[in-house]
Design brief:
- The chain is of the alpha+beta class.
- The chain has two domains: about 160 residues, no CATH class; about 150 residues, Alpha-Beta Plaits.
- Helix content is about 65%, strand content about 10%.
- It is built from 13 helices and seven strands.
- The strands form two sheets. The chain has a five-stranded mixed beta sheet with strand order 2-3-1-6-7, sandwiched between helices.
- The protein binds 3'-deoxy-guanosine-5'-triphosphate (GH3) and magnesium ion (MG) (2 copies).
- 3'-deoxy-guanosine-5'-triphosphate binds next to strand 1, helix 10 and helix 11.
């Protein structure tokens, strides 16, 4: 997240620098030192992030340093009376993109405390006579953080909706497409096989026709649940659309893939939603040591599925190797 913020942060700093330079003749040049300090802090933090295995700490440190620098700028330009007070909102607005809620609330509290220090702390009498010098910037910080949080949540929701099938909660076809490229590279580097299982519910149209669409939906959810329960944490299950599912099994050869598919077949056959019997057919394929060509692998598994359907359904068929000659 922090890398994506870097450009925006540089632009924000440019705006603040321009403000300080343009106002220089009136507020003096010393506040510009703050920007030099912030720039040095960014360089330091960047190095710390590269070396740290817990990057959230250097990120938090960078945020604290830049917020302290802006607070310093407020002090140098008049404390409670400084028009630069509202600049603290720049630090606060960056919080939701960087931290989860606990860090976010802590950051807001620190920002308000810093604001209190450079206003009430620096000019208690002035703020005593005109408390709005403190109150208004606090309100601005609250409103800006609320908006920034809403934008972050909308982005997270958008990304989740884009890859999750809402009915079953499984990953969708789009998620599969972005994963296959990564898997192809991974399997070439590690030489590990990857098993692929495709599954299609048998005579699903009948479930819809005889028991209604909502019963069809319930069956889909139940089948998805049963598939998930049989998988290890790093196996990946997708709903390709309709009543078709796909499972990626890293490290599985054709034998392993067959065993898993057979287990899935049995757990689906063994369960019935409100007395409606359900079975599914499976096609299995696996890549060899030569690396993975996803399209070839999928085609092999799909052909195996087709042959399982033709052979009478409720069974597992295994396709041939499906290793791309170009990768061999
Ligand atoms: P086969 O054994 O050959 O696979 O037969 P089938 O009836 O399962 O296959 P077919 O492709 O003919 O029918 C699939 C049906 O799945 C048709 C479609 O209306 C239904 N379907 C697709 N998506 C959904 C969904 O989200 N909910 C429900 N309830 N039905 C769906
Ligand atoms: Mg189908
Ligand atoms: Mg079907």
């Amino acid at each position: 997240m922090d890398a994506r913020l870097r450009k925006s942060r540089a632009i924000a700093m440019l705006f603040l620098a321009a403000g300080l330079v343009l106002a220089g003749p009136w507020v003096g040049w010393s506040p510009n030192l703050i920007l030099v300090g912030v720039a040095l802090a960014f360089v330091l933090v960047k190095r710390l992030i590269a070396r740290s295995n817990k990057p959230e700490w250097p990120i938090a440190l960078g945020w604290l340093l830049s917020m302290a620098a802006i607070a310093g700028g407020v002090l140098l330009t008049g404390g409670a009376d400084s028009p630069a007070k509202s600049w603290l909102v720049v630090s606060a607005i960056a919080l939701p993109a960087r931290f989860h809620n606990r860090g976010l609330y802590a950051g807001v509290a620190i920002t308000v405390l810093a604001l209190a220090a450079v206003t009430i702390g620096a000019n208690p009498d002035l703020v005593g006579d005109a408390p709005q010098l403190f109150i208004f910037p606090v309100a601005l910080i609250g409103a800006a953080v609320a908006m920034s949080m809403a934008l972050r949540n909308a982005e997270i929701e958008h990304r989740t909706v884009a890859v999750i099938d809402p009915l079953t909660g499984m990953l969708n076809r789009k998620a599969l497409e972005s994963r296959t490229v990564e898997l192809e590279v991974q399997s070439r580097v590690t030489g590990q096989p990857i098993g692929l299982i495709v599954c299609d519910i048998d005579h699903f149209k009948r479930v819809n026709d005889e028991h209604g669409h909502s019963m069809g939906d319930a069956v889909l959810k139940d089948v998805a649940y049963r598939i998930r329960k049989e998988l290890r944490a790093y196996d990946l299950a997708y709903r390709l659309g309709g009543e078709e599912f796909l499972v990626l099994v890293p490290g599985a050869d054709r034998g392993d893939g067959y065993e898993l598919a057979e287990r899935l077949r049995r757990v689906i056959e063994g369960g019935a939603v409100e007395g409606v019997p359900v079975t599914a057919s499976f096609g299995v394929a696996a890549s060899g040591q030569e690396g993975l060509d996803f399209d070839a692998l999928f085609k092999a598994a799909d052909e195996a599925l087709y042959s399982a359907k033709s052979a009478g359904r409720n069974r597992v068929h295994v396709g041939d190797g499906a290793v791309a000659p170009s990768l061999a």
